# Entry
Amino acid sequence: MCGSEPDHDRELFSALLEDSAEDLYENAPCGYLSTMLDGHIAKVNGTLLRWLGYEREQLVGRLRFADLLSVGGKLYHETHFAPLLRMQGHVGGVALEMVAADGTRLPVLVHSTVKTGGDDQPLLIRTTVFDASDRRAYERELLRARQVAERERDEIRRLATTLQRTLLPPVLPAVPGLETATHYHHASPFEVGGDFYDLFPLADGRWALFLGDVCGKGANAAAVTSLTRYTLRSAAVYDPDPATVLTNLNTVLNQEQNGGHSRFCTVTFGVLAVEPDRCTLTLAAGGHPPGLLLRADGTAEYVEMPGGQLIGILPDARVVTTTVHLSPGDTFVLYTDGLTEARTGRDTRYSEEDLLEFAATLPPVSASGAVSALVGLLDRLGKGVEDDTAVLAIGVPAR
Amino acid sequence: MDVRSRNNVTVTGNADGPVVMLAHGFGCDQTMWRLVVPALAETCRVVLFDHVGAGKSDLYAWSERRYSTLDGYTRDVLDICHELELRDVVFVGHSVSAMVGVLAAVAEPATFAKLVLVTPSPRYIDDGDYRGGFSAADIDELLDSLESNYLGWSAVMAPAIMGNPDRPELGEELTNSFCRTDPEVARVFARTTFLSDNRADLDRVTVPTLVLECSHDVIAPPEVGAFVHARIPGSTLVTLDATGHCPQLSAPEATAAAIASFVADLR
# Structure
């Protein structure tokens, strides 16, 4: 029963209190060390001597604290520990390694304070040393786990890059009488973006091209991108009329709606008839930013196609069409909204107006010239480009 | 890039006095000079800065490529001189920054009036007859321990910050802050520092040079100070009765006096 023998308890307690300060110091569960300001050891407790396997005479007055550290620890002591101690009067929680008499290493956590005299002049340095072997082993495990995570990160990057490559044509075919150029800007090396483009021949001697942007990122977006790209190519084989191709794509994406994942995209699809010194481009668009027409006469304008709807959401998406004639020196550029929605400040984004202003400085310009100017623009926008950006340009070479 | 904020440049002291630029070494930041600045500021215009990656420099300006050789740090020093339109600079470089000063003065001798090299070492690793004070294995051990990131601060930092959740800067200000470096930055800076070899640059120095060493310094022992002194034509060697690698902290009065009298010699 509690408190039944208060006298006995008090006796026991006072016996404990009689534990001498000397014994508390010598056999404390941590190492104690007092050093002169120049680092020479003035006093050391039995615990630290036992841990390191030294006799007291070997250390006191003979060695400095830094002499007991590994080389890395010595350098750290000189470049970090000693300056901090001088500036703050104390340093806490520093992980170091001490070297025992037999050369073995003891991972420790060190705390030091400067003892000052009455006039605030520093007199000596008191240091406590805690055995951190278990903790170090635990830290090594954490480090190993981090290295594994980093390796997996690299693997993801590699997979994303490979997958992305399969979604884009490795090189565009050469179109006689036309110059083409493309660029793909990856916003993140760890994610597969949903932008896509392609250019390919049709059976009747004309050419087809498309450029678009699937909503979302990652594996789901990649699957929709793949489906979109092959659907567009197949649809164009049966009936290359641009509006029909996009309507067919809309039907396919609509049928694919399942599992709660939205599957839709913005896209511009075009058919090119190349004649000597001119090119007729018939375009169909579904919710995609307007293409840029850069004329040989130095003007720039958007090819507006208002009213087109996102492809894949509604059973009957409205697709709008238009026709563009390109003469020698004219260039037509398609791009995705990663460019026009790039962040330019905390609350501001690049816009279609900004892009048109920039584009107006370019013509007359070739397809490759236009693409390299846009690559320069993307570089300047830097981290503001938060989404992937695809650019496709076609131009009739100037005479 | 704004050079002043990139390098957290601070200017103090006598605006009409000779320019003394103080460069900290591997480990801490410009606070290292705190105890010598008041004495120098009486007569000199004192320019202080943090190397990119240290102290309150702009961490976004740090890149492994730029700062994996001393050239990156040297370009920063020259950038600061140009930005502040400094002339006849007395450059005081501590530890690895002593070699940054050597490289800067070799690259643009017209900008610098004098060099003060505080506990310099052109090469930390022994090489043939040259005694740098460390074996290649020693330096590998240091770099390995920085690589595995167990040398240095433990999580003790975290409670210090968590203790002031609404004012995290307070915790940082109070505890070990001025020597705290991002582990990745520290790793690269250590590699740059301890693997560098600038012995061949020493005799290209054309400005008057003071070599300031400590009598007991495990990082830059007396042989190294003597080597630097012998290689830099016409240099002066002053050995301070001080222990450690940082005389600006362990013997601030003597350090400030040595710098001030060398600066005064100029005129």
